[in-house]
Amino acid sequence: xxxxxxxxxxxxxxxxxxxxxxxxxxxxxxxxxxxxxxxxxxxxxxxxxxxxxxxxxxxxxxxxxxxxxxxxxxxxxxxxxxxxxxxxxxxxxxxxxxxxxxxxxxxxxx
Length: 110
Prior knowledge:
Elements: H1 3-8, E1 34-35, E2 40-45, H2 49-66, E3 71-75, E4 78-83, H3 93-109
Antiparallel strand pairs: 1-2, 2-4, 3-4
Helix pairs in contact: 2-3
């Protein structure tokens, strides 16, 4: 078969040149960090519990390392992180570093 014949032949899989399968990876977060005068927050969405749990474990290890703690809300396959520096009640550079770590950790799980 030459290149023209190959190009002209009908495609399988509903016209797609690849086999399509559902991914077993976390979903990409659809929101950005929300920042107000008191805190920063973001929700991450996952398609599997093991991926979600791996993400949470990395956050807990980071908290212990930097001695700065986030509020985590876990709702099924969603994890919401709220960051603020207690006593100041406003996001600081430490919170922004934590947010960067959370985004990088999420990308690693994806």
